[in-house]
Amino acid sequence: MAGNPILLITAPDISHAKALHELFQDEDLQHEFPQLRPRSVENAREFLDKQTDLVGGKITFFRLIKIGYSPDPAFHGADYTDLIGFVTVAETGMGDFVLSSGLNHLLSFAVARKYRNMGVMTTALKMTIDAMIQYEFNFIGAIVKSGNVSSERVLSKCGFDKVQSTAINSTFIRRLCMSLPDYNKHFRPAMS
Ligand SMILES: CC(C)(COP(=O)(O)OP(=O)(O)OC[C@H]1O[C@@H](n2cnc3c(N)ncnc32)[C@H](O)[C@@H]1OP(=O)(O)O)[C@@H](O)C(=O)NCCC(=O)NCCS
After folding, report:
1. Which of 3-12, 43-52, 71-80 has the lowest mean pLDDT?
2. 74 CB contacts (<8 Å, ≥6 apart)?
3. What value does the CA radius of gyration of the chain take, rounded to a whole number of Å?
4. pLDDT at 61
5. Is the Cα torsion angle 183, 153, 84, 19 positive or negative in sign?
6. In the chain, what are the domains?
7. Using CA positions, which residue lies closest to atom 17 of ligand 1?
């Protein structure tokens, strides 16, 4: 590979359809995202194509996490990037809606196995949260299945508060644009 590797967060791009399909061959992703999983490369291409226009769709935010190797640090075309993960905010399924006390949108994320436990997701999520603030989300919520320690750890490192915990899962919230008094009023009491 040509240049020094750099972590990139980009908009969806259909040139990474094959890589997205491969990413979802990981059993952890199949377990975490049974609905999102593209069944074929063509399916992944259609999925990525759909995410370029998010208005009115179930997914309200979608970013790819990539490693760029371009010899020119100002240009990271598809030939010089590897897709290694994604961050998304999507409409909550009925199960999660009930289990998460009525949050209607939830954050999800994943990183390819060979890049795990190097701080990639923590860095990528911090970069993505800045973009979400620009989208004027008031707050962002995530549900983590019990036992997914690394996901809990990523959320904690990115400033999320654990506001609820059951035997099945935990709910995490991160304040974005919401005023602190409003945030404390709606979420802090759930921690006690
Ligand atoms: C969750 C996931 C995105 C984390 O990505 P990552 O790039 O490995 O995350 P990071 O390296 O930034 O942080 C992982 C943290 O978890 C910790 N960790 C991992 N496994 C752990 C374990 N078994 N016990 C305790 N801590 C653990 C790491 O040490 C690290 O914390 P540290 O920086 O304090 O040492 C990745 O594991 C993944 O894609 N999993 C499958 C999909 C998934 O579960 N998504 C979340 C659904 S909400």
Report:
1. 71-80
2. none
3. 17
4. 82
5. negative
6. 6-191 (3.40.630.30)
7. 150
